[in-house]
Amino acid sequence: MQELVIVTGMSGAGKTIALKILEDLGFYCVDNLPIPLVEKFAQLAADGDTIRRAALGLDIRSGKELNQLDQVLKDWKAQGIRYRILFLDASDSTLIKRYKETRRAHPLAGRGRVDQGIEKERGSLAFLKSEADYIIDTSTLLTRELRQELEKIFVENQQFQNMFVTILSFGFKYGIPQDADLVFDVRFLPNPYYEDDLRFLTGEDEGVRDYVMRGKTGGEFLKLLCGMMDFLIPHYIEEGKNQLVVAIGCTGGKHRSVTIARALYDHMKGEKGYGLKMEHRDIDKDNRMRQR
Questions:
Q1: Over the range 121-156, which residues count as b (16 or more CB within 10 Å of their CB) and which as e?
Q2: Partners of 275 in beta bridges
Q3: Residues in a beta bridge with 280
Q4: Residue 118 shares a structural domain with residue 242
Q5: When you count CB atoms within 10 A of the terminal residue's CB, does the N or C end of the chain come out lower?
């Protein structure tokens, strides 16, 4: 066996999806194997030629036996058995939302609240997270984006950093994004909404971008914003933060916020050391509401 990956993390964070993706990438995947059999599986796989890449899904479902995994990993290190740990995480609010949507009970909640089960689970998995080679926060990731991150690690062998930055444009009249870490209000910039030939366009259109950035104000703000991100992100990475949502808002989330979000994304996309994506939450919301 050339490669062994332990896939673990919070219930509801996407471990099952990750295992399916790894299976598509050529891994022999086993989920929820009893801990006493984990060491035997690794030994059998290492002694044979059939399994070249294996992924083991291990999580809180192992119950009290999960504590035994700590010793298994120590034994592997002593024996020189190489392995990597992939830890899937998500914010508490995201996990609670996912549990409510699926109407499933958290395995540690019993008859209590989901948030209590999540708190217990974080404590039980703390030793695995501290040893993880890769921590992926799936709070804002789509399945295809998770696949892209796993392909970077296990196919392209790119250097992976646990930090993932989302640049999110939004409209204040539709509410501030609940998962935003940093919020910037760009309603002070020129508003294309009051121009008849620009009103129904978006910040993805050159005419709108030129209008928003006319004069010195937009350029000066963007320079300050980019400088702030260049300063903050290395410190967030050093601190161990693995998910950052930078929310940029204007009134409707269609013109000014989109313009600045795209400009910030263009500035940051060449940087290495963290994942990056851009979303425009409300860019089409005005149009959809008018069609009702």
A1: bbebbeebbebbebbbbbbbbeeebbbebbeebbee
A2: 164
A3: 169
A4: no
A5: C
DSSP 196: T
What is the rounded average pLDDT of the residues 130-143? Answer: 90
Amino acid in position 22: L
Q: Which amino acid is at 119?
A: E
Q: Are residues 149 and 7 in the same domain?
A: yes
Q: Are residues 131 and 230 in the same domain?
A: no
Work out the mean pLDDT of the chain and round it to a whole number. 88
As a whole number of Å, the end-to-end CA separation of the chain is: 58
In SS3 terms, 16-62 reads as HHHHHHHHHCCCEEEECCCHHHHHHHHHHHHHCCCCCEEEEECCHHH
Tens of pLDDT, residue by residue over 182-212, are 999 999 999 999 999 999 999 999 999 999 9
Residues 172 and 228 in one domain: yes
d(CA 289, CA 33): 49
pLDDT in tens, 239-259: 878 789 999 999 999 999 999
